Here is the input.
Amino acid sequence: MLTRALADPDDEVSASGPAHAARTALEAVREQLRAVPDSGMSWGLLRYLNPGTAPALAALPVPDVRFNYLGRFTATGTAGGELLAGGDESVPLRHTLEVDALAHERSGALRLEATFSYPQGVLTEQEACDLADSWADALELN
Here is the structure.
């Protein structure tokens, strides 16, 4: 598992290249998520418990990327401002890339921590690190 620290927010990041493309993609996803009624809170009910909609949703293809925002926490003793990229062969993954992110307050500052997981043989360690770095660069442009 590799650890990548988020760059200092005061660092300048180029607005062209992969970071710009990642930022554009993130903005498009953000706008799509804002359009989802009730922030998607009813999706699980429709997908798993509603017999009228569950089959249709189950038939959809599994996306390549799963993003899971775990929320905002105020805890001490946790690592902060890091991007972790790695693969754990003992845990089966359904996606090419799985990103778990959380925000937490530490020493009076709000920090973002994200773990990038991927199945071995689908992405290389370098590809996962490049994606994590591009994601961090795109976040810092906002």
